[in-house]
Amino acid sequence: MQRRALLLSALVPVAALSLPRAARAADTEVTIDNFTFSPALVTVSAGTRLIWTNRDDIPHMVVSALRPPAFKSKVLDTDDAFAMVFDTPGTYSYFCGLHPHMQGMVVVT
Amino acid sequence: MDDTTRTTNGTDRRGLLTCMLWAGTGVIWTVAGGIPRSGLLGSAQAATPSGGFSFAQISDSHIGFARDPNTDTPATLAAAVAQVKAMAPALILHTGDVSHLSRPAEFDTAEKILGASGIETHYVPGEHDMLEDGGTPFIERFQKRHTPGQPGGAFYSFDQQGIHFVGLNNVTDLKAGGLGNLGEAQLAWLERDLKQRSDSTPIVVFAHIPLWTVYADWGWGTDDGARALALLKRFGSVTVLNGHIHQVMQKVEGNVAFHTARSTAFPQPAPGTAPGPGPMKVEAGRLRSVLGVASIAYVPGRSDLAIVDSPLGA
């Protein structure tokens, strides 16, 4: 519980710091629609900001599949968005914390 | 009434595997000698049998949801509560998703409407209720007063009228790609809890996500649900009440009757009939026919409970 709260607060500065970066690397968009991350697999270069937007009329979350999760959004109601910069090359699996059958992956090169 | 459902009892049920589907409001359960029967609220069959007692199931109120097809979820919950109250059940089980986003104002509204029934109400959480602070606000508000001497967290048991009621939490610590989750600690507690009961004790288990796999593609099942069911196998009468899928489904397997209740907020599509399990859009005039409650009646000496699912309106 507490660990999650810490992770969340740790994410806030990341998102804030990412704003100036957006000018350098184009953002990549992932849409959540019909209980699906679309595209479910995105490949981006390091430093790219990913933005997930919920277009469903049911809330969703973006949660790292690592245990404990490496990143976690707050709950996203309809039209809410979550942004995060991926600086380190690697493969990042994630899922919806509310509907864990919804899964996606970010490959950072 | 067309959408009244009845489980068969005794040997007819053994080996029988049925899966039926409706849309509705709430369920009232009558317990007769151990096996609950459900019926739609408003049905004459939901009346408490002599010598028995009845309880009601309300589910998926989603207070805070205010979109098509239901912009007034407090009103439909209030209608469900009024319907339940008219049947004077001994208690109400709420099988989760009381709120839409775990917000304090949503819990306030739900607590006020459900509290107006004046009927003892027992809750288990849905995933929508546990979004803040690990679920503590929900547990503190809706479960703590029911769980003196229990292990804490969102699961507990109690006894009433000879029935052993077990409330489980299968909506936290969910894993990527998985379904609902009970977890080791809860399963160990369940084993200890059931050990003290005789085989002839009627058991009613209630939890949010179905404990049996209704449709894995949409996450409608519980990964370790089979382990809980294995612990329940020796009992002569087990009734499993779930919500989450916003429609009535029923299955009987051996001595275990599975039942899911309608939502009081919005319907969801039958498995695989839509691209996703999002709210099903229905015309305003038809909304209450796909919302509902359930009633369950118990009659001592009978081996099954009568379950009647009732829609909120025609």
The number of helical segments of chain A is 1
Name the average pLDDT of chain A. 84
> What is the terminal-to-terminal distance of chain A?
32 Å
Strand percentage of chain A, roughly? 35-45%
| Poorly predicted residue ranges of chain B | 1-25, 40-47
Please bin the fraction of helical residues of chain B.
10-25%
Domain Calcineurin-like phosphoesterase (chain B): 54-247
Protein name (chain B): Metallophosphoesterase
Organism (chain B): Limobrevibacterium gyesilva
GO molecular function, one term (chain B): hydrolase activity
List the helices and strands and how they pair.
The complex is a heterodimer of chains A (109) and B (314).
Chain A (H helix, E strand, L loop, with lengths): L1 H20 L6 E6 L2 E3 L2 E4 L3 E7 L8 E2 L16 E6 L3 E6 L7 E6 L1
Parallel strand pairs in A: 1-4, 3-8
Antiparallel strand pairs in A: 1-2, 4-6, 5-7, 7-8
Chain B lengths: L19 E3 L3 E7 L2 E2 L1 E2 L13 E6 L14 H14 L4 E4 L9 H12 L5 E3 L12 H8 L12 E5 L2 E5 L16 H12 L7 E4 L18 H8 L5 E5 L5 E6 L2 E5 L31 E7 L7 E6 L3
Parallel strand pairs in B: 2-14, 4-15, 5-6, 6-7, 9-10, 10-11, 11-13
Antiparallel strand pairs in B: 1-12, 2-3, 2-15, 5-14, 8-9, 12-13, 14-15
Helix pairs in contact in B: 1-2, 4-5
